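pls design
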């Protein structure tokens, strides 16, 4: 079968929309849930660390360290996933337009950009890990643990950057089961290695927090190898030969026209977490551990949404390229219905079982429960709004209007959330700070609705 015929018969243009969305999204959601499981299991093990020098449990210090590392780890993921969004949007549109030459140019330049990201974060890890943790006012055992963890994950950044790229290449051509296999393999290896390296089982040295970092990059690197093998063997729409390759700035520009707003948007989340950590440290240093635990727990509900939008984006982009408006609109509407159901379940869980969720993290420190229960119940209010924003922002990206996503995200997290958190911390203390999340999400819904109306009027309705 010829290349053009393979692209013409791509399932994203012919399969019933609901079946296609479920088929595309479920494998990604499954792998995302495995990733969420890894994140929680990782922190559960970390919370049980005992430090002989401090004569007892160091679990809260370890969770605080993970919280200090989180904004910088998020930054690395932002660079990788944002580039992947741009690459996928260009690649999927090229598939819809039956331009197999552009498909391969987008893939090769995307991999080149992933390698550039790797070099950048390796340099940060080698020379600036301590400076980055100190910048959030980290001190004591939390500081030392944080420096160890951050240095290792940055030096091993090839695992994160290249694994995400390999997954996105498989997703762009509809091979989400293979993408799931890549991510789940890395996550499972993570989970297996965590207790072995953290506590020193089976003759391995007891590495504590550093062991969690080594487990992370080991799983990711295995995922990279598997992803390369699967792309070479099964991804027939893409040829990954680099013979005579030179960076094509025209293609890189197109990738970043969509991807850069996504990178900035996710980096804004990193900036928000950084300054939120500083606000929380000034009120109660243990609240940083609570914030870290919240992010681990909420991933069980947000990760499925991110899996859903990873399935949705190539479908919308493909059918935009193929000029099939009905399929585009139906995909967006169905995604919103599924997203609402997931977020409603998250809201119920956080409101009814906050203490049960927090008890998963056995730090032997009562402050985690005392500070965490009101925090989870208040923050969960924004779940009832977030579903709409996540799907709307994904639709903007799929249709080449990532700048709208950037505007909404920047306004939410920098213009509203952080100032609200700072003001509320002065007015009502720690419990009041958490209300900044629902306040910011309400603003995000208003902006997202406005931009979605414009997208529908100016782009979708004219397809």
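designed seq:
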């Amino acid at each position: 079968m010829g290349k053009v015929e393979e692209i013409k018969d791509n399932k994203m243009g012919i399969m019933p929309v609901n079946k296609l969305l479920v088929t595309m999204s479920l494998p990604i959601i499954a792998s995302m849930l495995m990733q969420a499981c890894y994140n929680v299991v990782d922190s559960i093990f970390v919370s049980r660390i005992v430090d002989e020098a401090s004569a007892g449990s160091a679990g809260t210090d370890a969770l605080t360290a993970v919280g200090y590392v989180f904004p910088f780890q998020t930054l690395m993921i932002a660079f990788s996933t944002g580039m992947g969004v741009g690459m996928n949007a260009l690649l999927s549109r090229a598939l819809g337009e039956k331009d197999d030459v552009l498909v391969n140019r987008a893939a090769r330049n995307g991999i080149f950009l992933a390698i550039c990201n790797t070099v950048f974060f390796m340099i940060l890890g080698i020379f600036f890990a301590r400076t980055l943790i100190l910048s959030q006012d980290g001190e004591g055992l939390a500081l030392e643990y944080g420096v160890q963890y951050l240095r290792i994950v940055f030096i091993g950044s090839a695992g994160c950057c290249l694994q995400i790229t390999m997954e996105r290449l498989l997703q762009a051509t509809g091979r989400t089961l293979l993408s799931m296999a890549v991510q789940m393999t890395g996550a499972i290896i993570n989970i297996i290695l965590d207790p072995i390296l953290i506590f020193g089982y089976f003759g391995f040295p007891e590495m504590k927090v550093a062991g969690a970092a080594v487990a992370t990059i080991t799983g990711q690197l295995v995922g990279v190898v598997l992803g390369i093998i699967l792309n070479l063997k099964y991804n027939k729409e893409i040829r990954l030969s680099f013979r005579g390759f030179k960076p094509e700035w025209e293609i890189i520009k197109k990738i970043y026209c969509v991807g850069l707003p996504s990178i900035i948007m996710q980096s804004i989340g990193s900036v928000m977490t950084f300054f939120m950590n500083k606000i929380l440290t000034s009120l109660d240093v243990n609240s940083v551990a609570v914030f870290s635990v919240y992010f681990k727990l909420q991933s069980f509900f947000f990760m499925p949404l991110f899996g859903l939008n990873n399935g949705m984006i190539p479908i919308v982009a493909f059918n935009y390229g193929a000029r099939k408006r009905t399929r585009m609109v139906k995909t967006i509407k169905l995604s919103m219905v599924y997203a609402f159901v997931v977020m409603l379940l998250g809201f119920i869980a956080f409101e009814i079982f906050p203490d049960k969720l927090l008890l998963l993290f056995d730090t032997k420190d009562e402050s985690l429960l005392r500070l965490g229960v009101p925090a989870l119940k208040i923050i969960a209010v924004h779940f009832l709004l977030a579903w709409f924003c996540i799907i709307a922002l994904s639709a903007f990206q799929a249709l080449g209007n990532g700048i709208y996503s950037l505007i909404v995200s920047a306004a939410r997290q920098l213009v509203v959330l952080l100032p609200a958190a700072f003001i509320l911390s002065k007015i009502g203390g720690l419990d009041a700070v958490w209300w900044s999340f629902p306040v910011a999400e309400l603003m995000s819904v208003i902006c997202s609705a406005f931009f979605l109306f414009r997208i529908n009027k100016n782009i979708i309705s004219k397809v």
